[in-house]
Each structure stands twice: as structure tokens, then as C-alpha cells.
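Q: Trace C-alpha cell order:
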Amino acid sequence: MKNELNEALDLLEKEKNIKREIILEALQNALIHTYKKNYKDEQEDVDIRVDSKTGEIKVISKRLVVEEYSEDAEVNEILLEDAKKLKAKAAVGDIIEVEILPKNFGRIAAGTAKQIILQKIREAEREQLLHDYNISEGDIITGMVDRIERVDSRKRGDEEQAVPSKPKYNVIFKIDKAEVVMSSRGQIIGETYSHGAKFLLYIMDVNSSPKGTFIQVSRTEPQFVVKLFEREVPEIKDGIVEIKSISREPGVRSKIAVYSNDSDVEPIGACVGNRGARVNAVVEELCGEKIDIVNYSENPEEFIAAALLPAQVTQVIVNEESLENGKKEAVVTVDESQLSLAIGKAGLNAKLAARLTGWKIDIKSTSAYLQEMKENAITED
């Protein structure tokens, strides 16, 4: 095995520019873990060493030199007469190293070495890909639709559904010579992807697999909206305006909370732009997805009220008892005419506001809340 490993290390160093020391260190750590897992019944104090020049793997057992074996630690001990055969000056109480060959360890070591080498190759390819295209996770890139691949969602753990209501597809984009993959989860509902069409894409991850390295992208991530605003709003890119939080229902509605570090810069106005040019550019990229831009505030009453826009809030009552229990709960009252707007279709506005603020929000009409308070007061009396 050592010759094969040595040849593989030489090849990787020349062709993949992976230093053999990096692979050997990873291999040595992995072999120690593998040994402990597969030989856990043998309580030996072992060390595993991989020769950096030859690739030879040795299992070293550290043993205490004794005159007679004790009853409970025989495997970690060696008789003085045997120790002297290995080290002439060995004495009782010394710790000496003994090379051992556990049963089947050669086969296990070969399999582990293969896994480590493949892992390092994938990591090197991943880093090279990021370097070649000057990208990193969290960036936005432009990709051109190359093809669409149908995915059987019942056979894939990451797309598992009991009974798919419609076919699922991966969209494969090209950026130069590299392929990027967008699963159904990354696709905005209602968007169509025709061959040759160009889209802005958010880089989720750069994955390595036995089949190669590919970039996973998305258009549904909340951070995609953040990155789009960074492109359109110089004040965000410069750090003057911050997007403090975001909640999103892809293709339907997003809410972003913004804050200005400069009293002369109004954060909502900066994000909206002259005649809505900036926010409209983002909305257009997101296929008409509605975007609510609200002011962030450290004051929970102000922040919750802003988060429920476009509904007009009458009052926000923070549940102080919930705060003492480590929770964030509040009751919001609105006029009857604003109730459906505050809750939103299928509860969407309330749900997005809760995600944006991090508070559990209970929305009631003012009349219903007052009636509830009156009934509680009567009950207490």
C-alpha cells in the first residue's frame, strides 16, 4: 500500500498542487479516529504515524515496562525481558514504543486513505473554482440557462414529498465554462427558465461530490434581496444604511428593516430612490415581488408597528411577563377597518412582521381588545 500511497501523493502534489503534508496530517488524524472506532475493545494507547517520504503507515503502541503483568492493564504493558529485545537499555517504569499490526487494519487504512485523498481533491477543486471565477458564497453572479433537468422528488432526500403535486426541476446555468445548479427550492414560483435566458443568482454553496464540483445557487434566499439592494443602493454598500433584518415569502412579499448611521440620510428614502427607481429595480428582478421597507427601531413598540405596514397600528402592548420568561410576545390593536390588512392574506403580513421583528404578535381589533380587558376586569373582581 505504501508505494501506491506515495505515488498518489506525488501525483496530487504535481497535478493538483496539494502539498503531501496536508494530506498526511489529515490521513493520520483520520486513521487514529478509525482505529479507536474499529478497535475500541483493545484499550491500547496507540499512535499512528505516516512517513512523509515513503507513505508508510505504522501503528505504534505505547507500553509500560514491567517485571510482571498486572491483572487489569496487560495490553498496555510489556515485560522487561521483551522490552530489552526492542531497546537494550529499557528499564522497569520506562514507556517504550512497539509497532503492532492489528487484524484487517491494512484494508481499513487503505479505505481511509482513499477517502482522505478524494476529500482533499474536492477541496482543492472547490478552492480553484472559487479562485478562477473570483466568487465566494454569498455573492451574486449572472448565469445563463443551459438546460433543465427533471428530478424525482420521491427519490431525493433534500426534495422529499409524500406525493409531488407537480414535477420538480433543477435549472442548470452556465457561467463561462462552469455549471451552477438551482434546485426547485431556489426557484421563485411562477418564474420560467428558457434556454439562453440570463438571471442574477445568489451563491448558496460550492459543493464537492464524487462526480465533481458544482456551485449551488438560489433566487429565493432572503439574503438574495439584501444583495440586490446592495447593488442598487450605494448607501448600503458604503455602510451608511444598514439592513437590520429581513423576512421573505419568495415571489410574494418581502419586508426589510433599515437603519441609517448618518442623521442626514433617510434610510427608507435611500432604498426607494428617486421616483422609486432603486426599489423598482429590485422588484423587477424579483418578478414583481412586493417589498415593504420599514424603519428599524430598538424600541419594540415602534418596530412592531412599523413591521405591520401597510396597516396602521393603534397600539402595541408588550407582554412584560413573557420577557421575564425569555420570550418576546406582544398584542397589537388596530381599527376594525385595518384588521384584515394587518393580518394579510392567509396571515402573510402578520407572519412576515413576526419574522422581521423576532416577536410573537397577536393582532386584535381595538374594540375586541377593550371588550376582552373589560371581561377580565369583571372576572378578577
